[in-house]
Amino acid sequence: MMGNTMKYLSMCCCLLWGTSLVCADDTDELKRIKENYTSMLLPVAEAVDSLQVDWNRIEPEREMSDQVVVELHQRYPFDLAKIEGYVAKLSDDGSWTDINYLDKKRSGWEPKQHAERILELAKLYCSPVTGYYRSETLKQVIHRALGYWFSAKHKCPNWWYNQIGIPKTLGTAFILLEDQLSGQEKAGAIEVMENSKFGMTGQNKVWLAGNVLIRALLQNDAELVKMARDTIASEIVLGRREGIKDDWSFHQHGPQQQFGNYGLSFVSGMSFFYRLFKGTAYEFDGPQVDILTSLVNEGYKWTIWNRMMDISALGRQLFHNAQLHKAYGLAFAAADLGIGGFPARGNLLVGHKHFDDSDYTVHRSKSWMGTVKMSSNRVIGTELVNEDNLKGYYLGDGATYFYVRGDEYLNVFPFWDWRKVPGVTAYEDVAPVPDINVTRSGNKTDNVGGLSDGKCGMAAMELNRDGLTACKAWLFTGDEVLCLGAGISSDSALCVTTSIDQRLQCGTLEVLDKNAWREVSGKENFLKEDLRFFHDRTGYVVLGSGNCMAEAGKRTGSWHDFMKMYRPATTEGEVVSLYLSHGVKPENAGYQYLVFPDSNKEAIKDFDVNGVNVIRNDATAQVVSMPAAGKGYWIAAYKPVQLDMEGLPLEIHVPGIYYVERENGCLQQKSVKPFRPSGKKRNFHFK
């Protein structure tokens, strides 16, 4: 009996001893995570980041909404003059006199600046790199500002700020200031963080879990830390409706490409958590790290050119300097993951890729990049949420951009004719651009896709929207892009146009007239065949007859007109626009034109159009051969069709994109990409 009792007591002691060990280990792990958190947030005097030498290229923004841009600005060196202004403008009650706390905007909500300033002050207070380290004056300012926020309890009409944005910003400050918080302040901090609960999908799910993680650290709750970590890591997977797709694009709000919006926040967040958990029991495992690395290398790298992000990758977030900010946000995130390959100059990635899950094509040569964004029954082209992207109705209708420097379209948006987004066929009208949320017609077709051989490729899109139909194809080679349109039809009394390009003016727009180049000034109409234009290292050749408009000069506009977060103000810029007019109620109209990025006037003048063999260009099929695209034929077939390929028959049964070559007296299919049929339609509710 005594032996059993001693054995029982011995077992209990072992269990208790084991539990204390686990608790001790948990405490050590949480301490290590907090130390990682602090070291990642605070600048070190002697540290020199290769990316941070470019701060002079990234001008600070005064009006910000996007979380990635906010966090990019948080990396800036301390602006002591600005911070001294914060101290001077703080009222006795802890509010700032220059913040509109009554603001009700859903995007760019001004009270968020209060939280951002607290974080900035907290970082300065905790950082030994300036004389403000542990400053008593700064400490009192921080506590007054915290007290105001805890008592005022401001709420935004947009749930995102209340549940994600504010807790994320203030939570970071709470971690830094943990040893400075009074019991009452600690309770206020926990109350703020309790606005975030586990739930939702994709990046929203990760944001919420990250905020729960902060609360768990403040409460020293190891079990909740593990739950938050596991929730975050659970999104590092493929194959879900939202999140990382099999083609390494990123979707949110349904089947919609969101590289630069939710996707970039995902990469930035995951790179942060990768470093945060590094060296602890919570660190990501090998397969999870491999997925994140592939997402950057196989997905994001395709969207960046000279540290500028492609407009079509931005989603609805067409903010001021968005292309620059998003690219740098990605470069910092990639660096945190140990991934390089984002040079400020030059191109390390050459090739052609079509993102099947996103109806998105990217072509990269050594000296230029071109992209096409399409939409279909499967893929949503764009969205309007929180008054972002009020004029972006046509952004998924074949938007086509060409980059040599990378800044060709930087901040052009206030000056755009939004019905003439480059590459798009649409109605010409002085009426407001349709509201996406009211006229969410989408592109009602399955006939959209892309085919690549790795170096060249074709994208094709049947357009069926708002009573306008067209068949559009793009063939990318190393030196040029052939753009084809056919079957352009509408019964509308509005004129239909196809935009060739619309970008910032850089130098003169010139037209080849009587075998000599002359400047285009103002707006001119050209009806002649074989038109040739040159502007900003890019040549344009319009084949056949057509009605082409060319325009160069000043325009005025306002960021507020399409992004309500900005204050109303008129700005001025210079724009070059080239577009084709198909007239009113066109029936089976078409077009053929080539774009030559990174070219020169001599090459455009001497280009031999006889090398471009357009065999067929109608609403059934578009067939072309070009030496620069291989020795075969590229075909976009929108219906089953019997083709005659210069004397050789070819029968196509399944709509799609084909590449065929002559072999032994017949045609051989070398590569095929059938258009994917859409699945069951879903209704998507956006927040």
TrEMBL record:
<dbReference type="InterPro" id="IPR038970">
    <property type="entry name" value="Lyase_8"/>
</dbReference>
<comment type="similarity">
    <text>Belongs to the polysaccharide lyase 8 family.</text>
</comment>
<feature type="domain" description="Polysaccharide lyase 8 N-terminal alpha-helical">
    <location>
        <begin position="93"/>
        <end position="334"/>
    </location>
</feature>
<dbReference type="GO" id="GO:0016837">
    <property type="term" value="F:carbon-oxygen lyase activity, acting on polysaccharides"/>
</dbReference>
<dbReference type="Pfam" id="PF02278">
    <property type="entry name" value="Lyase_8"/>
</dbReference>
<dbReference type="GO" id="GO:0030246">
    <property type="term" value="F:carbohydrate binding"/>
</dbReference>
<protein>
    <submittedName>
        <fullName>Polysaccharide lyase family 8, super-sandwich domain protein</fullName>
    </submittedName>
</protein>
<dbReference type="InterPro" id="IPR003159">
    <property type="entry name" value="Lyase_8_central_dom"/>
</dbReference>
<feature type="active site">
    <location>
        <position position="253"/>
    </location>
</feature>
<keyword id="KW-0456">Lyase</keyword>
<dbReference type="InterPro" id="IPR011013">
    <property type="entry name" value="Gal_mutarotase_sf_dom"/>
</dbReference>
<feature type="domain" description="Polysaccharide lyase family 8 central">
    <location>
        <begin position="352"/>
        <end position="598"/>
    </location>
</feature>
<dbReference type="InterPro" id="IPR008929">
    <property type="entry name" value="Chondroitin_lyas"/>
</dbReference>
<dbReference type="Pfam" id="PF08124">
    <property type="entry name" value="Lyase_8_N"/>
</dbReference>
<feature type="active site">
    <location>
        <position position="316"/>
    </location>
</feature>
<feature type="signal peptide">
    <location>
        <begin position="1"/>
        <end position="24"/>
    </location>
</feature>
<dbReference type="GO" id="GO:0005576">
    <property type="term" value="C:extracellular region"/>
</dbReference>
<dbReference type="InterPro" id="IPR014718">
    <property type="entry name" value="GH-type_carb-bd"/>
</dbReference>
<dbReference type="GO" id="GO:0005975">
    <property type="term" value="P:carbohydrate metabolic process"/>
</dbReference>
<keyword id="KW-0106">Calcium</keyword>
<feature type="active site">
    <location>
        <position position="262"/>
    </location>
</feature>
<dbReference type="InterPro" id="IPR012970">
    <property type="entry name" value="Lyase_8_alpha_N"/>
</dbReference>
<keyword id="KW-0732">Signal</keyword>
<comment type="subunit">
    <text>Monomer.</text>
</comment>
